Fold MaoC family dehydratase.
Amino acid sequence: MSKLTIQSLAELTQYEGKEMGVSEWHTITQEQITKFAEATLDYQWIHLDAERAKTETPFGATIAHGYLTVSLLPYLWNQIASIENLKMQVNYEIESLRFNQAVTVNSDVRLVAKLLSVKDLRGIAKARLEVTLEIKDSKKPAFTGIITFLYHFNN
């Protein structure tokens, strides 16, 4: 499925109730995990100490912070759809987010997104998306949930 380009509220509404697409695979590296730990001041050893994680966790390796995987949503969503002709985009809400499985270092993840609903709030599009972060070669996803973006279109 190719990347969608959406220019207006009317165009976005056409995808209501449909799967929007799937992003490319993204590899979670130790460098990315370490930088996230530094940015968030979350230095828990399961993310940073490879030797200890190998022997003391059921994962056998360091794992990405759950919030690191969530923070990839805008990047991966942008691979699925380019929402253009905007004054502004706002991350509005995350609901019923469930972490289903840890993402070990060097795992590949990708986003699957379905547009659940679009509401017109006086010219602002309130878009609710069902999101699933898949882990390559895993039956369980990293997380599932519903996110909401507000799109302030120019027209």
Observations:
- Strands lie at 4-6, 19-22, 26-27, 81-83, 86-99, 108-121, 124-135, 143-153.
- DSSP finds six helices and eight strands in the chain.
